[in-house]
Structures are given as structure tokens and as C-alpha cells.
Design brief:
This protein has 654 residues and is of the alpha+beta class. Strand 10 and strand 11 form a beta hairpin.
Length: 654
């Protein structure tokens, strides 16, 4: 205890650092609980706040800017130190109803640094350093009746010149089909950071993945606070990534765009993950610092798979006859849900949906219904449209759905990242919770930990997923490459409605992946509601063991561990649910990949392995003997492995 306390005291000593004028006025050095990471904050020669992060004593980013600019005050330069609080060790525990890990302990060392500008206005920066990275946020303290408007942040992430990046470009607002962009549905670009130019000239979205030497880094944000906008990144030829706010069109009609709120006012947490790839894959930092639970009644929130006709059969499938077939299909697959998609109000009608819901209930299945979120911010015509815009209309609609026994709503076509959009998200989720409805957001931004605050947010799109594979052959050709990136980028913290798994033909598209690959995606991709795209007509054509696997598929996990991976090449991930490990892997390379799964880390003996059979559409099943598992994955191939249920004091076999 004495040694730990002494180290924490030493961590806040102001020290003279002789590495140039940037660090002429060092303020604080903060260490992670395991002392592998350190973060230094200083005032540079312009008296601007800068920070730097080191791993094992080696800098992993260059000195990078802190600060923000308000409409009536600037904290960009000419600052002086007000105070440095005591470093304190913090620890919190929480549980997620759905996620990649259920019960989580967050530990970090925290310090609050306060500065003031030349007018005497104060700004505080709260920094937390955990074993997996740095989280920091800005705090404008005090109380006011008038609001403060944040015009910009100086926040930057200065990558070294030889750093590699895997980055998703942000599409221009009001571009794309029916002016529905930006919807975070682009492919990732890869290369040296200073040479990467975003495809649409509009910067990059979170999470952004980097590699510097043997260290991986992820930049993101979490916990959007009341009145704040979400942000994204822009970069230059030197590899400097700066935080920026959304385009003026990224808001609801007449809605607030920039952060604006009365004091006190805090920003979301800015995240910089640092570590080996297994540290990144296991990290929960994006929910660790997210806003806490907003309501207590969560008994109606039930993760599970869903059958969905639109994925392959499109608009024509939204009719009573086809939906009844999918209800029967879901019941046979032991799946709790069926999603009824666009124009159900026109094609089936409310009375027809009420009858379908009653029929589904007789089969222990519940319905989700699609809605169009939009007012005038895009040109979409799918309906129901505009029925959720006001609280009065929303609550009336949700009450009607509750009376019909509807489980949840899928809401599509949001306008972007503006502050009013985030207010809209939270208003929808809050009202949905009162009527015991779960929610799926589509055509949407990254959730940024919103599912911790509102656990009825079961999933969100925000990804170029299976839908685009059904439309574009060139993307179907690159499916495997894209999929190997997602556990470390889009799906790192937040549920992702990729809508995986086709086990037959895709109309007008030549599938490149094996059935074993498609099954692996159901484990590699976390979603509180996993929409399985394969149809009732395709299921009888696959082997009984494939059907059995999908009948028992979990969609929420107690733990997640990376076994091996190289982003863009291959990934093998292990997830635990109810005393079993589900291990899945895929290969995107043009050459075979050797995989070894160690028996001393996972109870492999007696486990069930599904892998490719005689051809890409066939699978074979194997019961594993004792010892390590050695596999060879071909191009666009994959596997899934399910261990036997453990029987220990903490995990009893039923």
C-alpha cells in the first residue's frame, strides 16, 4: 500500500522535462494501474495544452493538442495553470444486458487539470488512464442560466509518420441514395497515415484503428452528454488527426447542430486505446466511460436472433403470407423474433399486424416493426414515416404497439451526428422504454456506448453490411477482408447490425464465402438482436448440425478473448456464453492460413467443430479429441467451434 501511494504521489509531481520547448512546462504525468502506460500533460511554448501517451516508456503518439473554443471564450492558447488535483485510483463495476462481456470492472487512475485563459475563464480536463488506454473529457464547471456554445475542439491525435491506419471515410452529408448520407456505411481505407486521403474529402469516422511498430491504437469517443454533438476526425499529410464537429446538414429539421448547454457542461469522453491487439479486442473502455443506466426496468429486454425476410427477398416480401412463413420459420429455429420491414403499414396494415402478432405469440415469437425516422432531412418515401418526430405522436404510436404485443422497433434514415440528432436518439429510447419496446437504429451513426445508458438499444447499423453485399458484386468480392476489420473497429464496443449469414444463393450476386465463413460471422459480430438473413427456403438445404448450431446461437456474451488475428487478413475470436465457449475464425487472404487453438486455454476436448466440407456450400462436423486444435483456413473460409458446457462451482451444467 505504501509503495502504491508513493507512486501515485510521484505521478503528479511537476517535473522539468528537457525534450524541447513543447514540454517546457510539464503539468502532470499519469500512469495506468499496471504501469505499462503513461500520459503526460504540459503547456507548450504557446501556453497551449498538449498531451502525450507512452507505452513501456516509448511514445506511441506525438505531443497532441487539448483545448476547445466557445462562442465567447477560447482555450486554444495563452493558458495558465490553475490547479492539478490529486491523482486518485478509481474502480467501478457494472453489468451489460447485452455486450461482448457481461460483468465488468473498470479500474483507472484519474486526475483533474484546471487551466484558465487570459480573461480568467476556467476549463478543466479530466484524464483517466486504464490498462487499455486513455480517456479524457473537458468540463466547464459552475452554474448558469444562459448556454455555452462549443464552436470547435483543439483535440488532436498526432500519429508518427510510419503509423498504419485502417480508417472508414465519412460520406458527405445529403449525398447518396435519397440524400441519406452520412450513415457510416463505407469501406475501410488502409495505409500509412500521412498518405491516406479520405475518399469523400470529409474525414474519418470512429473507431479509427492504427498500428505503430508493435502497438495498436484506437481513437474513438463515448458517452455523448446532454446538448453535445458527436464528432469525427480530419487528418493531414503529417498524420495529425483532429477532432471536428458535423456538417451543418447533419441535424433534424430546425435542430441544434453544435454542442450547446448551460453550465455545468461536459464533453463526451475522448478515447485513445493503446496495447497489443488482444488488449484492443478485449477492451470495454467504450462502455466503461459511457453514461450510466438511465432507467431501472429492464426485464423486457431480451437478446436473441431474429428471422428477417427483407435481407434477401426485399420489399416484395413484406406481406402477410410471407411474414407468416417467417414466423413459422423463427418458431422452428427457436428464435424469439421476426422483423417486419418497410411499408408494412401499407402492405399489411395495423389490423393485419395485430393478427400476425397474435399468431406469432401462439408460436412463442414476437414481432419487430420498421419505421422511417425522417421528417424533411432526406428524400426517402418508405413508410411509416414521420410518426415518431414529436413526443406526443411517438408515445401514441408506442402505446399502440405495446397493446399489439410488439417487441421492438427498427428506425431508419437518421441525418448524422448533430446535437439534436442525439437528443432525438435519447428521446426515442426513453419513450420506448416506458412502453417496454426494444430499439434498432439504422441508417445511423456509431452508438458510442449509448447501449449502456439505454440497454433497450439492442443494435444499430452504422456499417456497410450484408445489405450492400446483396446489391454490389464488388463488395461481395471484398466481404472477407471487410469482416476481418470489424471486431477491432465498428464492432469493438457497440452492437452492430451487420445482418450476417446467407447459406444459399444471393439473387444476382455470386457469393465468395463458404457456409462455414457465414456461420462464423454470427459469433465474430456482436449484436443484441442478430438478424439472420438466410431464408426458410434455404434452411432445409443445409446439414442438420448447421440448423442445430443456429437454433442455439447466443447473441450476448459473458466474455470475449482474441486468439489470433491480423486486421485485413484473418481473425479468430472466442466468446463465452452460459458456460460454453464459441470460437470462430475467418481467412481473407489469397493463401491458406494456419490456425492453432491451445487446449490449455480452452476446454476443447469433446467440443464440436463445424468446418467446410467437400465444397463451399457444405459443412462437416467433428468432435474434438484431446490436445491443441490445428486448422488450415482457405480463402474466404471460416469455422465455428462450440465447447462442451463447463461444470465448475461457478458454472453448473443443467
Amino acid at each position: 500500500m505504501w509503495q502504491r501511494t508513493t507512486k501515485l504521489i510521484l505521478a503528479v509531481l511537476v517535473t522539468a522535462i528537457s525534450s524541447g520547448s513543447v514540454w517546457a512546462k510539464a503539468i502532470v504525468s499519469l500512469h495506468s494501474p499496471n504501469y505499462e502506460l503513461s500520459a503526460q500533460v504540459s503547456l507548450n511554448s504557446d501556453n497551449a495544452l498538449v498531451y502525450q501517451v507512452k507505452r513501456r516508456g516509448e511514445a506511441v503518439i506525438q505531443p497532441s493538442a487539448l483545448g476547445l473554443t466557445l462562442a465567447n471564450a477560447s482555450f486554444a492558447s495563452e493558458l495558465k495553470l490553475n490547479s492539478v488535483g490529486d491523482v486518485r485510483a478509481i474502480e467501478s463495476t457494472y453489468s451489460l444486458i447485452h455486450g461482448k462481456k457481461r460483468d465488468i470492472v473498470y479500474q483507472a487512475n484519474e486526475v483533474l487539470v484546471s487551466v484558465e485563459n487570459s480573461r480568467g475563464d476556467a476549463l478543466a480536463v479530466r484524464l483517466r488512464l486504464s490498462n487499455d488506454g486513455l480517456a479524457f473529457r473537458y468540463e466547464l464547471l459552475g452554474k448558469s442560466t444562459d448556454t455555452r456554445v462549443v464552436i470547435s475542439e483543439q483535440t488532436s491525435y498526432g500519429m508518427f509518420a510510419d503509423t498504419l491506419g485502417w480508417l472508414q471515410p465519412k460520406a458527405a452529408a445529403q449525398s447518396g441514395w435519397m440524400n441519406t448520407n452520412p450513415s457510416y456505411e463505407e469501406e475501410y481505407q488502409h495505409g500509412i497515415v500521412g498518405k491516406l486521403t479520405p475518399q469523400f474529402g470529409n474525414g474519418w469516422v470512429y473507431p479509427a484503428l492504427f498500428k505503430y511498430r508493435d502497438t495498436y491504437l484506437v481513437v474513438s469517443e463515448a458517452g455523448i452528454t446532454e446538448g453535445y454533438a458527436a464528432s469525427h476526425l480530419v487528418s493531414d499529410e503529417q498524420g495529425i488527426f483532429e477532432l471536428t464537429f458535423p456538417h451543418s446538414a447533419e441535424t433534424v429539421t430546425n435542430g441544434q447542430l453544435l454542442p450547446e448547454h448551460a453550465l455545468p457542461f461536459t464533453s463526451p469522453w475522448r478515447l485513445l486505446l493503446v496495447g497489443d491487439l488482444d488488449t484492443i479486442a478485449a477492451s470495454t473502455l467504450g462502455t466503461d466511460v459511457a453514461n450510466p443506466l438511465a432507467f431501472q426496468d429492464t426485464g423486457y429486454i431480451k437478446p436473441g436472433p431474429a428471422a428477417w425476410s427483407w435481407g434477401l427477398l426485399k420489399d416484395e416480401s413484406v406481406n402477410s403470407t410471407t411474414q407468416r412463413e417467417f414466423i413459422d420459420y423463427a418458431a422452428d429455429m427457436h428464435w424469439p423474433y421476426v422483423l417486419v420491414d418497410v411499408n408494412w403499414d401499407q402492405n399489411i396494415g395495423y389490423d393485419g399486424i395485430a393478427k400476425l402478432s397474435k399468431y406469432a405469440a401462439s408460436k412463442s415469437v414476437r414481432l419487430w416493426l420498421w419505421y422511417n425516422s425522417s421528417g424533411h432531412w432526406n428524400q426517402t418515401v418508405y413508410s411509416p414515416k414521420g410518426q415518431l418526430l414529436t413526443q406526443a405522436d411517438r408515445r401514441k404510436e408506442f402505446a399502440r404497439l405495446q397493446d399489439m404485443g410488439i417487441a421492438g422497433v427498427k428506425i431508419d434514415f437518421f441525418p448524422g451526428d448533430g446535437a439534436a440528432v442525439w437528443d432525438y436518439f435519447k428521446a426515442i429510447l426513453s419513450d420506448a422504454a416506458e412502453f417496454k419496446l426494444m430499439v434498432n437504429f439504422h441508417g445511423v451513426t456509431l452508438p458510442r456506448g449509448l447501449q449502456r445508458e439505454y440497454p433497450n438499444l439492442m443494435t444499430a447499423e452504422g456499417i456497410k453490411g450484408q445489405e450492400m453485399i446483396t446489391f454490389f458484386q464488388d463488395f461481395a468480392d471484398r466481404q472477407a477482408y471487410h469482416a476481418t476489420l470489424l471486431p477491432f473497429t465498428r464492432n469493438l464496443f457497440d452492437p452492430m447490425d451487420f445482418t450476417p449469414t446467407v447459406l444459399g444463393d444471393i439473387p444476382n450476386i455470386e457469393r465468395r464465402t463458404t457456409n462455414a465463413f457465414e456461420l462464423a460471422e454470427t459469433v465474430l459480430f456482436y449484436s443484441g438482436v442478430q438478424h439472420i438473413v438466410t431464408t426458410p427456403a434455404q434452411m432445409p438445404l443445409v446439414e442438420p448440425h448447421v440448423k442445430q448450431f443456429l437454433q442455439t446461437l447466443p447473441t450476448s456474451w459473458d466474455d470475449t478473448k482474441l486468439i489470433t488475428a491480423h486486421p485485413g487478413k484473418y481473425v479468430v475470436l472466442a466468446r463465452k456464453a452460459q458456460c460454453q465457449w464459441f470460437i470462430a475464425g475467418i481467412n481473407a487472404q489469397n493463401t491458406p492460413q494456419q490456425i492453432v487453438i491451445p487446449a490449455d486455454a480452452y476446454p476443447l476436448t469433446g467440443g464440436t467443430l463445424l468446418m467446410t466440407g467437400e465444397n463451399a456450400r457444405q459443412t462437416r462436423i467433428q468432435t474434438l479429441p484431446a490436445g491443441d486444435l490445428h486448422l488450415t483456413l482457405s480463402t474466404n473460409d471460416g469455422f465455428v467451434l462450440t465447447t462442451q458446457r463447463e461444470s465448475t462451482n461457478d458454472c453448473k451444467v443443467d
